[in-house]
Amino acid sequence: MKKNLTAISVSLFVMFVAGSSCTKNMQENPTLANTEKLSASATTTLATIDTATITLNWTTTYQRIDGFGSFAGRATPFFESPKRDSIMQQIWGADGLQLNMIRGEVLYTYPFDKPSGAVTIKPAGSSVDMDVNSAAYQALTSDQKAQIAQLWIFKKVKERYQVPIMFASTWTPPLYMKTNTSSVSGQNFNGLNYSCCSTDFANYVAGFTKAYQDEGINFYGVSPSNEPENVFSSWASSYWTAAHLGQFITNNLRPALNAKGLTSTRIISSENAAWGTANTFLSSMDKSNVDILAGHGYVEIGDLILGKRGLNPNPVTWNYATGNKPVWMTEACDDSGVYDGTMVGGLKLAVNMHQFLAVCNVNAYVYWLGMLAFNNNESLIGANADGSLVYPKTFDVMGQFTRFVHAGYYRFNAGLANNSTLKVSAYKDPATGKFSVVVINPGSNETHCRLNLSGFTAGAISSYLTADNSSTHWQQGSAAAPQGNGSYVLTVPPSSVITFTGIAN
């Protein structure tokens, strides 16, 4: 699903996520007003009335985490915003979400020199540092402003935060390369005209990638399609069959990238809107030259037909062999209705992230929009009419993962017993012994837990909380020390996400 924001002034960024570990109590939390300051006798009582048992097994390891990110397209309003630097800091900076990935767009509006395969990614004579109030900038077309805005975002993210994973997806080829040359959408099965333009389009994507490289941006990967099954929406899109997309990647795109010297640039595919659709699409596609398998995190097609939208609450593991290739979830948000900045919306994201990371075993999770110039469920940061920034609980929930689970961590086993409400996942850094446990409580009751460690021991663990009445981002609680048997007693507030972090001995 690609959101139709063309009639709206927007500024956006999207982000990555990380995980954390499990701690004892949160006596400094306003969310625990009735249970704060647990006495020694109360702690003993908790040990006998556990309503959940969590066991971390260090030796059972799953997928490597590549990281978390957000989308950097639709960039003009962001580029023009006087608050763009502080917003960028909240998305990629150390005191914000600490995302390590950024997703851009292979815009279809770039000038393209067919004989040489050169793509011009910024207007002649322009600079990414040009004053947005200058006459030169105001004289640019809307397409040119979008081109320079996206390039500015990528360059500044690299300069300021050294974001290592930058990639770009293609919504549609240039219109003159499509079967219906007058339509930007994929409606009526409008897609690439294979009879004339497969080579040209491959050279266009490769030329875009090379032009960014010349500006100092080495794309980790590129994707030739975005939601290739979308034949309903009016926004920019292009219809592909699985057979044609696989053939295009093998016969056209990989050779075109190699010819430009971009042999290390990975190809990402197929980025279908629903995870189940991506499973079906990719299972029948030639993936021999696909380096990263990808899908999006929206509801399945059956739910969409029934009028449902938003985050998929129950994606399932793909049922075909992925050949040990990385699997990324490259777009998700709640596009289902009226703005909700509370934990109701935050928990939707938490459950979605948990399902993708702990059930579908994805290596990376990328959110849709980082920022909008108004309040909307599709973005992590919003804005009031006076320009002041708004941080919905989705922003904080994202940080419960992204701030504490970093690239190079591995998910490891987090067993849950005696409870059917909590959702628990654990992540570790084999090099340092750091670990994080993310505990989601979508229920309305406080839950007392015992955390057991198997295959390792640890000292005191820290906790960070997001709840409706948490007073700060990732509210830190008191450290919890292990009991005599090495386990921990902890309390998980209702309707919350809490991350525990520690270091294995």
Automatic annotation (TrEMBL):
UniProt xrefs under InterPro entries: GH (IPR017853), Glyco_hydro_30 (IPR001139), Glyco_hydro_30_TIM-barrel (IPR033453), Glyco_hydro_b (IPR013780)
Assigned protein family: Belongs to the glycosyl hydrolase 30 family.
UniProt keyword list: Glycosidase, Hydrolase, Signal
Signal peptide: 1-23
Name listed for the protein in its UniProt record: O-glycosyl hydrolase
GO cellular component, one term: membrane
A Gene Ontology BP annotation from the UniProt entry: sphingolipid metabolic process
GO MF: glucosylceramidase activity
Domain Glycosyl hydrolase family 30 TIM-barrel positions: 80-261
TM segment ranges: none
Pfam families, per database record: Glyco_hydro_30
Organism: Chitinophaga polysaccharea
Keyword Protein transport: no
